[in-house]
Design brief:
Blueprint lengths: L1 H22 L13 H8 L3 E2 L5 E5 L3 E5 L3 E7 L2 E4 L1 E2 L5 E2 L1 E3 L4 E3 L10 E4 L6 E4 L3 E6 L2 E5 L1
Amino acid sequence: MKSKIFIAFGIMLCLGGTVLAAAGLEPGSSSDPLVTKSYVDSLLGAKETSSSEYEIVQLAAGKTILGHAGCEIILRSGFANINSFTAADGTENGVQDITDGVDLKNGVNCPINHLLLIPRTDSRGITTTTEVFVMIKGSYEIKNN
C-alpha cells in the first residue's frame, strides 16, 4: 500500500514539475528557440504572400505587386500599369491577359476585371497609380516605389 502511495506521489511531482517548467517558456526565446515561419515573418515584416484562394488586397498609389510564377491578378478598382520583363536579348515578355487573350506590355494601363496571369517569377506585375483593390491568387510580393 505504501509503495502505491509513493508511486502516485512521484508521478504527481513529475507532472507538476513539467507544467511549471513549460509555463515559464516564451516562444521564440533562447530557452524555447523553435518557432514557426509565420512568427518570424511577423517579426521581420515580410510582405511575401501565397494563397490558393483569391484574396482581396487594398493598395495605396505607388505600390508594386510582383507576381511569382502562376500568380493570378484581377484589378477590381482604381488604376494601375503593367510591369513586363525584358530579356537579355531585348525581347519584351508581358503579362498575359487571359480575358482578352493578349500579352500586355510595360506601361500599358491594367484593364479592370480582367484575369492577368504571371507566367514566371521575374519583374512582372502591376504598379498602382491610384488606390486600388485587387483580387490575387498565388505567391506575390508587394514593394514600395
